[in-house]
Design a protein that fits this description.
eight-stranded mixed sheet; four-stranded mixed sheet; globular
Amino acid sequence: MAGAEGVAAVRAPMAMLVSHPVPHIPTAPRHPFDPAAKDGGEFTSPPPPRIYIVGTGNIGCFVAHGLRSIHPRRPITLLMHRRNTAREFEENGSIIVVQHNRLAVSRKGFDVELNSMAIENLLPYSKTPPSSVSTPGDKIEHLIVTTKGHQVRAALEPLVPRLTPNATIAFIQNGMGIIDEVNSTYFSKPESRPNYIVGIATHGVASPKVPGFRPFTVEVNGIGTLKLGVIPSPKHQQLKEKDKKTPDMPPTTAYLLNSLLSCHDLVATMVSEQELLSTQLEKLAINAIINPLTAIFNCPNGALLNNWPATRTMKLLLWEVSQVVCALPELKHLPNRDLRFSAENLYKAVVRVARATAGNSSSMLQDIRKGIETEVDYINGYVVKKGLELGVPCSMNHLVQTMVKTKERMAKLERERELPIEGVERTEAGHR
């Protein structure tokens, strides 16, 4: 699920909403098709440019499913790093299913690609791969990353050499500080960086709870929004200064942005850079409470309500979050900053989401139960990091971050004990 598994976007009171100018989006080149062309409906024009998606979890499948709906010939490649996952996808008809209100919509036509590291020394996952499947090595101009925060750098590593100088990457995941890590790891020079789009999804999406559900099926528990913002590119800004006729944004950015905004299922909107940051921070505050506390206490979101000790804990955490956010220099000129990000208003937002998603399990709790790494370092960890930079003590968030990491380790060890190990006999106390 996205965020704290909210079924709707958290909205600030009307008095706190501020209008921000949104840059003009240049119209991306259109690729019309003529279904009535020769011999019963052959397409007469080339298909739109290919879009790559890395991360085939719930949000990744939801986005891919939406993109498939807006153009029957749009080439969409799902980048998978596991051979078994690619084979499973093919064996199930290469179909993604989205369920909402008991209505299931299936869409197909997706290409699959394994990155170079995944296919070395391995047999092809398909004996007869479709001719439209792109081969590793093709240049990438439009990339959407929907992996979890801690997986982004590893997912991008084999793709960096394939990104063109003018490529655009859209990041859609929880947490903050991810782009900073990507830049420091792969694009330390500003002139070498791709163009960036950041997406904030508040849709409530999850895997179906029924046993034996079809793989690559996503259940929508509640419709939210996908807020999109463009991160200014120093390279493009220099071009605009030299030539006033240069569009407001690079063509690859305009194309990818228009593609996402055209998906009715995604309920996508574009916001200004400042509003994007404000929305990110509001969602971070909600995630910093609901996700770690439900993971620590192993409870659904609603269990945090009407519980005085839990309420006290939430307010202590939010006080630190509020202090950090209000001290950020990026929000120095934001009207109503102190009111919008006060601990009281953030607490009200947390309660609204927890109440609306009372029966849901947060994504962090689901990760703990699976014995896999969580995004806590990019949520509470981000608060702690910024607190250190700004001189704001964040001992509560640091404690919660450490407790979740401890749970991660415990769950991982427990999961390893459940796996059969050749040559090792199990005892009632575990295994030797």
